[in-house]
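Lecture 7 notes: from sequence to structure.
We start with the chain below.
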Amino acid sequence: MNANELADALDKATEYLRMIGDADFKEAADMLRQQQTKLEKSQELLREYTALNMRQQAEIEALKAQILMWENAEVPTEVMADIVEELERRGFITK
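Predicted structure tokens for the same chain:
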């Protein structure tokens, strides 16, 4: 049972309890619905951040592969300096 189903059950219970004079659970049902909405939004953000992280990891791995390729190639010093500078700028390596 998720929060929305629990909230619906509370609504039904509230009607019954009103008839017999007991407490009103409407606020609790509303709160559960709000929490379910927040939970769903949080899960969507988590999915988005996970996808972003995966893309960034793929980019890092591609850059590592480029470094290995350049390390094994005859590359002029000034070109290698430009590559290192770009990697530092992106935060992939530090001095």
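Points to note: The chain has a mean pLDDT of 84. The helical segments are 3-20, 26-71, 77-90.
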